[in-house]
Structure formats: structure tokens, C-alpha cells
Amino acid sequence: MPRLRSTIDVNSEDFRRNYAHNKNLLAEFREKQEAARHIRPQRDFDRLERQGKMLPRERLHKLLDPGTPFLEFSSLAANMAYDGDAPGASCITGIGIVSGREVIIHAGDSTVKGGAWYPLTIKKIVRCLDVAIENHLPVIHLCDSAGGFLPLQSEFFPDKHSAGRIFRNQAMLSKMGIKQLSLVFGHCTAGGAYVPALSDYNVIVRGTGAVFLGGPPLVKAATGEEVTVDELGGADVHTSVSGVCDYPANTEEEAIAIGREIVSQWNPSAKWAAQCDTPEEPYYDPDDLYGIIPDDIKKGFDMREVIARIFDGSHFHEYQPAYGTTLICGYANIWGYKIGILANNGVLFNDSALKGAHFIELCNQNSTPIVFLQNITGYMIGKEYEARGIAKNGAKMIMAQVGSHVPKFTIMCHGSFGAGNYGMCGRAYDARLLFSWPNHQIAVMGGEQAANTLAEVKIRQMERNGETVDPQLIEQLKQDTLEGYLEQTSAYYSTSELWDDGLISPTDTRNTLGVAISASLNAPLGDPGYGVYRF
Amino acid sequence: MTSKDINLKRVLVANRGEIACRIFRTVHKLGLTAIAVYHHEDRNARHVEEADEAYELTGDTSTAAYLDAAQIVEICRVEKISAVHPGYGFLAENADFAERLAQAGIAFIGPEAEVIRTMGDKIAARAFVTKHNVPVAPSVTQTDDLDAFLADAAKLTFPVLIKAAAGGGGKGMNIVRKPDELAEQARLSAGEAERYFADGRIYAERYVEQPRHIEVQVLGDGAGNAIHLFERECSIQRRFQKIIEEAPAPNLPKKLRDKICATAVKIASASKYRNAGTVEFILAPDGEFYFLEMNTRLQVEHPITELITGIDLVEEQLRIADGQSLRYKQQDIKASGHAIECRICAEEPDRDFMPATGTIHLLRAPEGEAIRFDSGVHEGLEVTASFDPMLAKLIVDGETREQAIARAIEALHALIILGVESNTNYLARVLAHAQFAAEEIHTGFVVDYADDLVLPPLDDDMLSAVLGTAALALPEFRRAAFEMPEPYASIGEWRN
Amino acid sequence: MTMQLKLDDGIHDLRIVVRKPALIASLGDHTFELEELEADHGPDHCAVTLCVGDHKVQAWRYVDGDRVFLHIGGRTFTVDYVDPVIAAEEVGEAGNIIKAPMPGIVVDVHLEAGAPVTTGTAILTVESMKLQSTIIAPRDGHVEAILVAPGEAFERDAVLATLSADEETK
Asked: Is this model's pTM higher than 0.90 or not?
């Protein structure tokens, strides 16, 4: 495979300006991440210490195999919700390696309101269980949660993807033969009790671990019975009387050690044999990415420069290099795995859309996982393009993409606007995992376009009603729209709402995809098949 | 050399361990038959393996078995043994044993029973040498009455050393610094003497501060002819047990050396000493020396004398026991070079010399022309608390003391014993001490310099080397390190 | 997960940082490369040459189950693999087990199983080298079992007796 030839001048003024801009974004991202992960009021740390509990990330550290990665999902979930009261949406999820097996980890974060479940907590847990289902990954639950955050019950209880979905997903996993282990470190109250109850293996820590549908206060209120936490749902009750849990542990360390032992008993799942070569570092320095990504969402850049800094040896086999050039298609390897890439290099035209649909079919034919690198302003509009059927061409791309039986992965490299988001495997399109860069912006259209569109609509409406158009009013409308957009199009808003599986730094993209692809191979390839293409 | 000139054809060694193996070496060299006795616990021991014939001793404990004179004499009678070498320890200084063998017409490779009774008993020996104008340290002999003993001992100048009358090897020995500690220490010593030697008699003597322990190797023909094979310096001791010996003694003026050696010969000669023996002296810093005791047997540290004189002491013992006259005159004995013996013991010097036990999984002795390794142990041997902790002796020689020290340190570092803790590294630390090189030694050396002799702590590099090397041998670590698939093996501990 | 190794009385946490292209491990803040260059293997021992950090290390090694004996640079070391589950169990049982501080022989047994003890109660007298020492109860409770008899020899760390917790008064 030929090596891409970079034309970037790292000494150019553009490069240096972009570099400074993006490094600032990175610093801001890391700062928010650090705060979400580790900054808590002292009293929360004190409480855990009093209870003799480890911090959730300490547990994680001890659980994972040494010297292996942990691909954390949505570290900034809920960062713009609940006045910032639920950093990380009070849980930690991700893919890690335990006893040599790839597993999904779901850990309650009891440093946040005792691990209370907010609506976005539920969304994050449900999402990680979806990932488990889609990729056939066993799940380890590190249970330590006070239960649902009652003031917001209407937002997390009743709907299809509300709390019930957690347990539905657990049951579904079990039905699929995918194993689950719960390590009960703290309380599992009410619905939370179902997490261990629906797991195949449970370890519970003496003294601090407890599982019950109704805690002592609720029991007292309901029946007048006075009972201690330990008598009601402690380790000994559940491992020797009720059978809700399997292994008692004297300490959290022991619970983790037993958990690791249990996982080591599991038969490692047979992955499907994806095409794989010897891994090779990119020839070009990934750090250059910070100078390549523009400091302005409106500025374009050559996505080949990005490809050259993520994939093995900077090698790239480009498909149809001269056709539909606004969509780059081709094969590369990442951590040895053969993948197909679709990367935006401008607005999607009819030919780019057709090329994309065709290339997706080629990848499926070759059982090659697909990576979408999004920087899309949308499909070309206008009379000429509509006449040439841009709508049905875009639909073909969606059809091919949705019909894919190979795993898909999406990286939001920059902008994601309009229907291009759909064709390029946006959140609704079941990418096995979807990550965004901190510079990412997303909206149905750009902020300025939206402001202008809304202003245009308003002017026409006023004119129709015979009103005089007040330019000041129009300007105000534009400004308000823009401001609202500015907040909601940002990557932080996007990741707060779990429109992605987390923000990653551009230089982490390579490892992220490596873990994601490796994990995806646990699920067997589905049956190929497509819907009806409109030709 | 053939056996033709020795009539004692079948030589039994009533001992175990390294000394049995060492004696067998000479027995074989002379073309004689080497015969071992052993307790069930020792059935796989090296001395059994190296013997031509081996006979099992029964006994509740192995120690009891090797001390069972009647049983051994009976084996000798049945198996037509010509001579018995008792080694050291066990029955080596047991006059009754020597007597019984003599009565059975079997040669005891050692002195006459009577001489053992006199010279092997510390109290009797002191009386004997005093008669011959040899100085002894002021002392009190135990009477039957412990209270009387205590009253007399309290009159000595303190500190006072209490010892078992019948024993050696530091058992039953205690320093008493204040009169009010005397009663308790005396009882402790007596109890221990009773347990180890079945003889609770003890005696007390003035304890010389910063003394040196100098001993002289002698050979006598039993008719009053005796020669010496120079002295050995045995001052490096822990808990009154020698751990490093050297010959010749460093920092010993020729005149004093001659005087000490002549005194030893005088004692051997006066006692009509037969066979090999050792006269031990305490040498005070002012050059005064006192008779300490006589060991009527082959000493643990005899090899250093062999190295500097070139004489095989066991061969001389066999010849004397065979009734031959001394082969050497005093002027024939020449010493050259310097020899050092290190006693390799199963113990933890850095935990107050606590005895160590375990299985010797791996044993690699250093090799070289200047190195002699007298060992009674082998791989697979289980070292228990029931025997003396000495596993082996590492003996080196050199042209100079400096060279011998350097070689000894190198050899100690090259001695590999895995499975049982040993004092190997500690001995190297003692030898490497500046005061040792400066010849400033005395019996309190390891206590005085204890702080310098502490095991240095491991730095990060060394700790990584130790734990890394260990980890690479553990299946848990190897699995974790080498069975991780890509891309995880290469990505490592990465967090996004 | 961290591999715990016991050397003398210290527990050390050894972590793998990355495995390829070279195995990098860490002990606390100290990170180093680890590579076995040569090994002259016997059935369960070997003379190994390793690269640890920037240093070449020559070692003799014998493996006995979870225990590794080493000879490096004239010193010997005994390193024990601390099985995490067993270690955690022992944490839970600590205080229930009375271990021998050194090898020795039992001189006297003062109590029988079932006897109540308070912290400091003499349970056994043992002798090692020239020292007699008393083994005392580390906490209040009852003697669950005495596992040795007078005259019996034991190794270091041998369990001599066990205690059971007092029934909680309700």
C-alpha cells in the first residue's frame, strides 16, 4: 500500500495558529475531564474513607489487567446538565481488559451524590449495555449507587429508554449468552437491586455491600419492621440464605480478586477473523493533527493529512481517487486491522454520494469494518443537484450504510451538519462506537445559516402580514439564534447529552479505534443484505 | 599411594555431614574402605552416598542415633570395622566410646580414653595444664552445690564467662556482666548443658575483653612426642561460634607465635597426647595468653592448616591410629601462604542469626584452584532445625592474606545456595570490613561492628532486578506479560 | 490489577506498563524495561541473564510454587507471589491466626481449645536457638485450636494456634 505524501508545512503561519488554537482546546478538554473525574467536595472523599471504600477509579485500576488500555466512554457526560451536579453522569463506563478478556465495565461513582442515577446516568448505562449487546462483550458491574435521583424521576423512570431499559438490556445480554458479573461494593437499592439479580455471578463485600428492593427506612414506613442494612440485604444474608449473591468478600480487594478469578474461568469468545497485518506506527507524527485542524469551523482541510496521522504507516489505498473527490474512500490498517475509510473532503455531490454507497458495499463484500471520518457541511443543494437526484443519491448512501453487516465506527473530526451526518453514520446509525474531537460542532445546519434562514423566514412572514421589517428586530433574532446554537452545537453539549460515546483528543484516535475494532470482532458478522435502492 | 602401608582397612566414620565426607575423601585416597552410619532422616544424605558401605542407626531422633555409642560399637563388631573416626561433635570427645572401641579391639582415631577424660574435660584440663605452668584465666569450678558455685563465682572480676564443662560450640555459654545476673545465667547454662551434653556441670572464668581466640594444631604419637602445625586465628565468632578462621594468625609477632605454639606442644607432650588435637588459647590485647581448652579431635577448621602446611591431617590421623610413628619432625613443618575458612551456615544473620530451615533446591559451589569446598549437603536436602546449622565450609588460600581475602569474597559471591537462607553474603561483608583487612580483630568483632555489617538496603535498580527476575519466573506474571493479544500488548496502560 | 510480590517483610506492587515492543514494568515511580536475554533452564531452575532497565543482571533462580529463590550479585532473595484472593482472605482472618515468629520447638502449651483469652494471655512457650519466648493472644477471644504439642518442631510462619471471635453479645 502506498504511503500518503503529506504536503503540510509545519512551519507555516496557518499551521502554528491552528496548533496553538487546538492545543488550547485540548487543554480545556483535559481540564474538564480532570474535574469530572477527580474533583469532588472533600466531604464525599471523607465519607468513602469512613465507609472503608475505595474510590471508583481505584477499584477500576485494581480490576483491569496491568498495562492494558481502558477506553472510557463519555467521561464528560452531563457536563452541561444539572448545573454540573453530576460529573461523568455519576458513573464510569468503558471497555477494559480483565483476565485477558475484553469486557464492558459499568461502575457506579459513589463520590457523586452517593452514585445516584440521573436521567443521563441511565442514558449512559443503557448505552454501555447497548455496546455490550452489539459487540457481544461481557459486562462487569461495580455496584455502588444510592438509586434514582428522585426529583427527576419522570425523566428517568417511565420511557422506553429509561431505567427499565438497563434491566431489559441485562436480560437481553443473558439471553444472548453474554456473561455478566456484579461486584457489590455499596448499596443496590430498588431497581438497582436488579443489576446483581440479573447478573450471572455476584460478589458482595461484607459490611458495605447490600442489595434490597426496599431499604430499612422504606421497610419501616411500609410494615413497621425495624431492620438493619446487614440483616436486610448484607453479604451473609445474600450468599448463605437468599442466593441473590454468590461470593462473600471480606474486603473490596478480595471482591476484585474473586471477580478477576471468575472472569478468568469464562471461555474467551471466538472473534471473527478480520484481516489483520502487523501493526505499524503512522509515518507522520499524530501531533501534527493539531496544526492541521483549522481554527475555524468554516475553513476546509485535506482529510488525507488526517488519515496519514492515524493509520498504520500512513499507508492508504485510495478508491476512485479521481471520482467524487469530495468524499475520500479507501483502505488502510489500524493496529494491524484492515478497515475501509470514508472521509469528507468537502460537500457531498451526487458522484461523491454514489461513490460512498459503492465503497460501503465493497467493504461489506470484503468483510472490512468501516471508519467514517466526519467533516461534513451536508449534501449539495440547488436546482442542478436536485435535478440530478441528490436526494436519492444521499438515500443510497444511507441505505448502503444501514444495510452494512460489518462493524462501523465514526469519528467526528470537525463539523457535522445536515443530512451529511446521516449518510456518514451519525449517532442514529448504529456506529459500534462514535467519538468526537473537542473542536467538533454539530447541528442540522451551521449557526450562521440557521440564523440567516430564520431571519429570512421572519422577514417573509412580516412582509406577508404587511408589517414593516424592523432591521433591529431581525438582528436580535439572528443574535439569539446564533447564541443558542453556539452552546448547543459545541462538542461539550453534544457529549453532555450522549450524542457520542465521548470526546477524545485527536491523537488518541488511533488507540480508540484500535480498542473499538478489536472489541467489535467479538460479535459475529451479521448476514449481508440490503433494502431497495432508488436508482 | 596404596593401602599396603596401612593396616586399618575398614574405616567407619561415626558422624554425618561435611566432616564424614571429608574423612571419606582421605580414606578413599589411601585405598581403604569408607563406611558410613546414618539415621533414617539422613538416608539420602551425601555422606551415605559417598561411603562404600552404610549402616542404619535406629533412634527416636537422629541426634540420639549418632550419639548411641553402644549401637555403633555393635555395628563395628558385626561389620569387622578396623577403625572408627568420630569426626567432631557427637561422640568425638566421648571417652567411654573410645574405651568401648578399644575393648572391642577397634582402633579409635583419636587419643586414649584417659586423655580424653583429662584433656577433653575443661575443668580437668585446666587443672592439668596449671600443673605444667601454663597460665589459665582465673576461674571457678562448679562443685555439686550450685549455691557454693555462685558464691565463689561472685568473687571473680566481672565480666565472667559461664561455660558447660562437657561441651563446646558455644552451647551453654553466657557472659555475665553483673553479679546479680549470675544466678539466672548459671541456671540457664546448666539447663542447656544438660540438654545438649547430658552433663549439667558448668564453670565460670574471667572474661577477657577484646580477646583473640588462637589455637594450635598438634599431632602426638601417644608416647610423649608431639609437634605443632602452627596456629589458627578463630576470633571471628557470632554467639561464641566461630564463623571465619584463618591461618596463620594475622598481627601475631613471631616471638609470641613461637611461644604459643611451644606451649601447645608442651601440653600435648605432657599429656602423652595421641593423634590430632587442638590447644585453644585466649590472647589478651596485652599479649598475655591463657589456656582455654583442648579439643581432643579433628577441628572443623582443620583445612586451613592443611592448606598452609600441605599436610593431610586425616591421613596423619589414620597413620597414627594405625600405630605408625609421626612422619614429620617439627622442623619439617613449613607454612606458606594464607588460608581462610568461612563456615556456611543455614541462618539469617540479618535477623539476629535466627536458624534457617528449608530445602536446598540449588547448590553451586565456586570452583578454582585456590578454592576448597567441604560440604555434606546436596540439592534436594531438607535442612531442619535438628542439626547444627553448618552446611559447608568454603576454604580458600592465597599467597598473601590480602589475596586470600579477595578470593574468599569472590568465592562467597559465587557460592549459590537457593532454598535455605545462609550467611554467605554476611561472611563476605565481614571479610570486606576495613578493620578486618587492618588485622584488628577480636572475638567481639561482629558485635562491635554490627552497624557496619548490616545488609545495605536495595536501591531501585536492584529492587527492580530482584522483583523483575522473580516475576519473569512466575506463571501468573508470564501469562499477564506475554499472553496479551494485540493491540493491547502495544497500547499498554493507555487512558483516553 | 497489580502483581504483589513479597520480599522479606515488604509487599511490592509490580505493574506492567506496556508489553510491546518491549516489556516495561513499574515499581512505584520506578519504571524499567524487563527482558530475559538468556536462560539455561533446568527442570525448575535456571541461570538467567536479564536486562532490567539499563542493567544486565546475572541471576540464579529456582521456582518452588509461588516462591522464587534468587541469587543476584552475591545476595540471595526469597520472593513470594501474593495471591490476591488468599491475601485478602488472610486480611480477613488476621488476628485469628497465631504464627511462629521463627523456627523452633514447643516447650509448653498453656491452654486448651475453648479457653477464653484476653490480649496478652500466654498460649504457648517456644524455644529457638537459646531463646525461650511466650506466644501471647493478639486479641480477646477464645482459643479455637492448638495445632502443636510440646516437643514438636515447627518452621517459621507455621500456624501454632487459632483464635475464634467471641460471640457478639446481643
From this structure: no
